[in-house]
Design a protein that fits this description.
- Helix 1 runs antiparallel to helix 3, helix 3 crosses helix 4 and helix 4 runs antiparallel to helix 7.
- This protein has one domain.
- By secondary structure, the protein is mainly α.
- The radius of gyration is 18 Å and the shape is elongated.
- It has seven helices and no strands.
Length: about 160
């Protein structure tokens, strides 16, 4: 268990950061009044997400591997971290959907039908719902975490002298 304490810590930090980000999106109107911009601005979440992955891998390198971490060690750490973030994703998504912004799905469903992205409300509801978001956020968290780790470790690995 000591081997993954850092990954557990950063997975929890990542979940908290995600909740704060969604709260900021809601407070800025992106889940209501300015929902038309949500599709574009929500992608800015990649910036803190990548930053947190970098910080987690640096923490692992410094505090577990004493400043010397191979690409493989970092990749394994990043995969574990990505898996833990993915495991937390359904809970995080539930908090977002039911506590932080329960009006998001009704708003995005209504607006997507108005704009013609979907012909009917039922079609939009089939896409915009907790289940779909929980599944997609879980898969995306794992895949993007592994890809981010693979790239970040090119820079963070300790090179042989």
């Amino acid at each position: 268990m000591n081997n993954i304490n850092i990954e557990i810590k950063w997975a929890v930090f990542f979940a908290i950061m995600t909740l704060v980000w969604m709260l900021l999106e809601k407070l800025s109107g992106l889940h209501g009044r300015y929902i038309d911009y949500h599709l574009y601005l929500t992608n800015l979440f990649a910036i803190p997400a990548i930053w947190f992955m970098v910080l987690a891998l640096k923490d692992k390198k410094k505090n577990f591997y004493n400043g010397s971490m191979t690409y493989k060690q970092g990749l394994i750490s990043g995969i574990v971290l990505s898996l833990l973030i993915a495991v937390l994703s359904p809970l995080t998504q539930w908090i977002i959907s039911n506590v932080i912004t329960p009006e998001y799905f009704p708003n995005v469903i209504k607006r997507s039908v108005e704009l013609g992205y979907y012909q009917t409300t039922a079609e939009a509801q089939a896409h915009f719902n907790y289940r779909n978001y929980a599944i997609s956020s879980t898969i995306f968290a794992f895949v993007s975490g592994v890809v981010t780790t693979a790239v970040v470790m090119l820079f963070l690995r300790t090179r042989k002298k």
